[in-house]
Write a structure and sequence with these properties.
Acylphosphatase-like_dom, alpha+beta, five-stranded mixed β-sheet, Alpha-Beta Plaits, 7 strands, EC 3.6.1.7
Length: 106
Protein backbone atom coordinates (compact mmCIF):
# COMPACT_ATOMS: atom_id res chain seq x y z
CA UNK A 1 0.00 0.00 0.00
CA UNK A 2 1.25 3.49 -0.85
CA UNK A 3 0.55 6.37 1.51
CA UNK A 4 1.35 9.84 0.20
CA UNK A 5 3.95 8.48 -2.17
CA UNK A 6 5.77 6.57 0.56
CA UNK A 7 5.41 2.82 0.88
CA UNK A 8 3.68 1.93 4.13
CA UNK A 9 6.30 -0.02 6.14
CA UNK A 10 3.62 -1.50 8.39
CA UNK A 11 2.20 -3.49 5.51
CA UNK A 12 5.59 -5.08 4.90
CA UNK A 13 6.06 -5.78 8.60
CA UNK A 14 9.23 -3.71 8.79
CA UNK A 15 10.23 -2.14 12.08
CA UNK A 16 11.13 1.47 11.38
CA UNK A 17 11.41 4.41 13.70
CA UNK A 18 13.01 5.02 17.05
CA UNK A 19 14.40 2.18 19.14
CA UNK A 20 16.54 1.70 22.23
CA UNK A 21 18.95 -1.17 22.68
CA UNK A 22 21.11 -2.33 25.58
CA UNK A 23 24.18 -4.36 24.57
CA UNK A 24 26.49 -6.15 26.99
CA UNK A 25 30.04 -6.74 25.74
CA UNK A 26 32.10 -9.45 27.43
CA UNK A 27 35.82 -10.10 26.97
CA UNK A 28 38.82 -7.84 27.55
CA UNK A 29 36.63 -4.74 27.40
CA UNK A 30 37.65 -2.85 30.54
CA UNK A 31 40.92 -0.98 30.89
CA UNK A 32 41.58 -0.90 27.13
CA UNK A 33 39.78 2.31 26.08
CA UNK A 34 36.70 0.41 24.95
CA UNK A 35 34.17 2.99 26.16
CA UNK A 36 36.12 5.88 24.65
CA UNK A 37 36.34 4.10 21.31
CA UNK A 38 32.60 3.42 21.41
CA UNK A 39 32.03 7.14 21.98
CA UNK A 40 34.23 7.94 18.96
CA UNK A 41 32.22 5.51 16.83
CA UNK A 42 29.01 7.15 18.09
CA UNK A 43 30.15 10.47 16.59
CA UNK A 44 29.51 8.97 13.15
CA UNK A 45 25.88 8.18 13.94
CA UNK A 46 22.78 10.13 14.93
CA UNK A 47 22.18 8.36 18.22
CA UNK A 48 22.20 9.03 21.93
CA UNK A 49 23.25 6.76 24.75
CA UNK A 50 26.09 5.79 27.03
CA UNK A 51 28.81 3.21 27.71
CA UNK A 52 29.28 1.99 31.28
CA UNK A 53 31.74 -0.39 32.98
CA UNK A 54 29.88 -3.03 34.97
CA UNK A 55 31.09 -4.73 38.18
CA UNK A 56 31.15 -8.14 36.42
CA UNK A 57 33.83 -6.93 33.96
CA UNK A 58 31.49 -6.28 31.05
CA UNK A 59 30.79 -2.99 29.31
CA UNK A 60 27.15 -2.08 28.82
CA UNK A 61 26.31 0.12 25.85
CA UNK A 62 22.90 1.78 25.63
CA UNK A 63 21.94 3.10 22.18
CA UNK A 64 18.83 5.06 21.27
CA UNK A 65 17.77 6.52 17.96
CA UNK A 66 16.51 5.61 14.53
CA UNK A 67 16.56 1.84 14.01
CA UNK A 68 19.00 2.07 11.09
CA UNK A 69 21.40 4.24 13.09
CA UNK A 70 21.31 1.97 16.15
CA UNK A 71 21.81 -1.17 14.08
CA UNK A 72 24.54 0.54 12.05
CA UNK A 73 26.45 1.53 15.16
CA UNK A 74 26.13 -1.93 16.67
CA UNK A 75 27.55 -3.43 13.47
CA UNK A 76 30.35 -0.85 13.34
CA UNK A 77 31.46 -1.75 16.88
CA UNK A 78 31.61 -5.39 15.80
CA UNK A 79 33.85 -4.74 12.78
CA UNK A 80 36.04 -2.04 14.33
CA UNK A 81 39.36 -2.59 16.11
CA UNK A 82 37.23 -3.30 19.21
CA UNK A 83 36.24 -6.68 17.76
CA UNK A 84 39.53 -8.13 19.00
CA UNK A 85 38.55 -7.35 22.59
CA UNK A 86 35.00 -8.75 22.37
CA UNK A 87 34.41 -12.39 23.27
CA UNK A 88 30.62 -12.13 23.40
CA UNK A 89 27.96 -9.50 22.75
CA UNK A 90 24.35 -9.78 23.88
CA UNK A 91 21.82 -7.14 22.99
CA UNK A 92 18.13 -6.62 23.44
CA UNK A 93 15.64 -3.88 22.73
CA UNK A 94 14.57 -1.97 25.81
CA UNK A 95 12.38 0.98 26.67
CA UNK A 96 13.65 4.32 25.40
CA UNK A 97 14.69 7.17 27.69
CA UNK A 98 12.82 10.41 26.88
CA UNK A 99 15.03 13.48 26.54
CA UNK A 100 18.34 11.59 26.32
CA UNK A 101 20.86 13.64 24.32
CA UNK A 102 24.38 12.88 23.15
CA UNK A 103 26.60 9.92 23.95
CA UNK A 104 28.26 9.74 27.37
CA UNK A 105 30.88 7.61 29.06
CA UNK A 106 29.69 6.64 32.53
Amino acid sequence: MWVGGVEDWREKGQNCGMVAKRISYRGKVQGVGFRYSVRQIAEGFTISGHATNQPDGTVEVFLQGDREEVEGMEKEIGVSHLAGFIREANGKEVESVPGLKGFQIQ
